[in-house]
Request: fold
Amino acid sequence: MPDDAVAAPRERRDGLRLLITWFIATAVADPLYWFLAGPHMPPGDMTSSAQGAQLDINVLFLAAIPVVLGVWIYYGYAIIFWRASRGGTDLIGGPKARGNLKIQVGWIGTTTVVVLAAFVYGTVELIVPAGAGGGEGPQPIWTPHSKTILPIQVIAQQWKFTYRYPTYGGFETDQLMIPDHTTVAFHVTSLDVIHDFWAYQLGVKADANPDSDDVAFTTTQTMGLVTVRCDELCGIWHGAMYDYGHVVSKATFQKWATSTEVKLASATKLLPPFSWSYVPDANGADGGYYPDNVVPYSNEETYGATTVSTKTALSPTS
Amino acid sequence: MGRGARLGIASSLFATAVGLIVFVSMAFLRTNPPTLDFASGHTAGKPVDLTLQTVGAIGFGPHPDWVSYLTKSPEGQWVHTTLWDLPAGTRIDVTIDEYDSGSPLRNPEIGQIYGVSGNAALVNGKKVSLINATEGNGVAHTFSIPELGVNVPLYGVDSNAKNFCNSAPCSLSEAHNVIQFSFMTPKDTGQFPWQCFVPCGAGYFYGNGGPMQTTSYMDGFVKVVD
Reply:
């Protein structure tokens, strides 16, 4: 048989094989992730904002999985089929090494679409109500639709959080109690340095700055334990600046709030009038350690309770 | 200079550097305050007595003008430390001799007494559960263990008192208040930081630096052991 009668070996269509392999792997991996791992991703679904954060994480994972699979499959394919012992191609030099226009356009176009999609999705999620993070700051870019919002003031100081409930007489306590199925506005401020209120399971995280009212909204959806941590390095006991809160039924919360209001009535009288933020006295223990009337120091004792009654010093209370 | 001489000089310099590092490290480790052991030999079910004093100036050491706590050891000696081993699940009867002057509180919430037996303390024999720091001598310091929910403000003494104690260790003949209370250690072992919540670090930003951030002065550890 003449040599030219031998059929030329069928050209391997590497690109198509890679594409099909990648497509099948993605079609399997993405649903597996969504249904098996997605519901368990942090921070859970205790609140609307936690659920929003969980959704964002899951969406980003869905977008990232095809990218990761594409890279891994390409590597694997190259190692298996293009290695020298299996007749891999020789090193390419000269004009052939200048690149493949289709691959370059495809790579740049794909990565541009992926990045822009992530940018648009992230921006929309920040703007729309209940988006993760959009409701935080001194001027929130959205406010909840709910007409009944429970305000809870979070007061940070070195090194603990206390919570003030302005709609219950303004009492202040170190216990964080939140009613279920309720829209809550956390008003976060500080009495000294910068802290950060991070209520993990609530999906709420807001900086606590002195003389600033950072607002974070959320709506509770299930009851449970909440871990609160400071997430801004604030001194030696930063690591110990944490506590636990509880999302409880509305009835339980109402009972707790009204009884605590009564129980702490004497202590509440000593607190300064409720304010959305406080100008901390930089004089430490009020001993005149810093020059007053010099920015940023203040001669105003706004959280030092200079206007309270003088009738109850050392008086036993209930 | 010959190769051997250069090698000798380099070796000497290296040895000196290593020696300095070791010396500084050991000096740092040795300056750590001691831990007082109130757990060894403790009889189960019996309370432990913990006696402390707070002073406006420690009067010795690297920071003689810093405010500080001192602890009376089981042997009856005043020790400059805030680290204690306490037995688990045990009532701790605390007596604090408070020798420092007070002031209003940045956050009056810490004027409450909670997390201790009866949510009250005896201040010079009088039962108190809340201190109005804007009156009288104000609050000098607090004894607070946040993780255990313990908070006790310490009523200050008159800074103009004739027998005001200017440096530690202070004696009972000098102006002071006696604050007594009890709290329970948890049944599980662990380390629990405790601190003063009055920003009493004179000369530091917001009063929370210096002694407020240094163990053996205004904060320390409660180590709960079996």
Observations:
- Chain A has a mean pLDDT of 81.
- The longest helix of chain A spans residues 48-81.
- DSSP finds five helices and ten strands in chain A.
